[in-house]
Amino acid sequence: MIPFAVKKFFFYAYKRGMMKLFGCIFCQMAAHERPAEILYEDEHCVVFPDIHPQAPVHLLVIPRRHIGSLNDLVEADRNLIGHMMTVVGLMARRQGIDRTGYRTVINTNAEAGQTVFHLHIHVLGGRILKWPPG
Ligand code: AMP
Ligand code: ZN
Known about the structure:
- The protein is an alpha+beta fold.
- It has helices at residues 4-22, 25-30, 78-95, and strands at 40-41, 45-49, 57-63, 102-105, 121-125.
- Adenosine monophosphate (AMP) binds at residues 25, 48, 50-52, 60, 107, 113-116.
């Protein structure tokens, strides 16, 4: 049997290879080069529904500029991240989940299950969310 660490290594090599070959799908969506149901956008960030929703409301808030993950953030990004969190709140209000509750998730790298290497904040709500997450 192939050890998980080996599978993980090949999965990540594959993902990064695909991104080099075809470009970043979220950059393309943010640039309107690929169809997307954009719910909100400004000069810094873009919001669209997750294609495989895990809750009645499942949005992704992404920076317009390509940032691979939280690991790639630098001090100069502090305003951007702060701004993105305010957009999370705005979207929660617009979707009517601010009072009932919602969860924000940022997966980083293999063991957290990151599959798209353009930073994104998941916003999940509209149902009771269990804790701890799987
Ligand atoms: P993560 O696993 O944290 O990297 O999350 C990536 C998310 O992007 C997953 O929940 C996918 O369902 C979602 N996703 C992938 N491709 C698209 C797409 N074209 N449009 C919207 N969401 C997408
Ligand atoms: Zn990108």
